[in-house]
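Methods: holo model generation. Sequences were used as deposited, without trimming of termini or removal of tags, and paired with ligand SMILES retrieved from the corresponding compound records. Each pair was processed once, and we did not select among multiple samples. The sequence and fe (ii) ion SMILES for this entry were:
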Amino acid sequence: MLSKDQVDTWKSEGAFLMQLPCEVVNPSLDWLNKNLTLDQVDPDHLDFGSPGRDFEFPTSVDPLDDLVLNEHLIVAVQQLLETTDIRLLQADLWPKIGIKSNNYEAQANTDQRMHMDYGNNTVLHPDWQSPEAVAAIIYYDDSEKTAGGTAFVPRQGDTDPVYQAPFIHMPGQAGKPFFNDRRTVEDWFNTNDPGAYKLRNTLYEREQRVNFKPGTILFYRHDLWHRGTPVMPGKLRRVHNLAWRRADARGWSNWNEGWARQSYYGHVESIIGRSTPLQRSLLDFPLPGDRYWTPRRIDQVDARFSFYGFDSTPYRQALQY
Ligand SMILES: O=C(O)CCC(=O)C(=O)O
Ligand SMILES: [Fe+2]
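and the model returned the structure below.
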């Protein structure tokens, strides 16, 4: 459960940080400390996202998949979005390795440009007053050892000059070319859009860095100004990027491939089997009591998943006729 203060901060400032309970993160952390360490990561993988998309949900690594569907996270998102009916949009775990020389290539991910995330997650424009989606980053390392804390700019009320919509003062929006690297982007704005250059300078002046320990989570909004910062050379920062939306929200795209797509090998089926009805609902599996369910539909789904531990009882008990 989040406190009222945490929910209010997310709504007004656009982000808040908290520590997840050990029982939520430790299974993933233990797995990562054995299986995703510096010597196991491809040093040439410098972009966002897991190499080969291996750690996009569903990963077939049970502790990672179970964390993504953890009810502690679900309840927090339900509170932020003021609805019990939410869907998973994104879950990707990825390593960021610190490199020795600064990499200022236009698309380098090392020292990111200030941006909001909505641009490649929805075909619409977010409305600050009615947030429909939540983003989060879970950190698995210690920023005192790795650096690389996400930088973000809390919104200061309705009149904050850097938070006046439409939010188009960033690469890739409204005809501006897309680059990832901070220096490349700000050189471009300096030459081509001095007004936006000035606004963006204010963002860098106001940015705050996340300090993290293993299990810290940053809950933020897709209309929060933020960016990734360099990790110390030779160090590894592992994070999980997550996102959810209200079931009734319009315009949002799933970041990951469809959940069903990796079926047939038992991993996806086992996730359905071992999850609770609430956890399944994140994957658009209707809750008990949903008008989708009829005795016939329950029988059919039961036939498909009972092998994997699926228990149809709650769905049968909640049948409305
Ligand atoms: O790496 C980070 O801390 C943030 C990354 C980010 O904001 C992004 O890739 O959109
Ligand atoms: Fe981002």
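The first strand starts at residue 15 and ends at 19.
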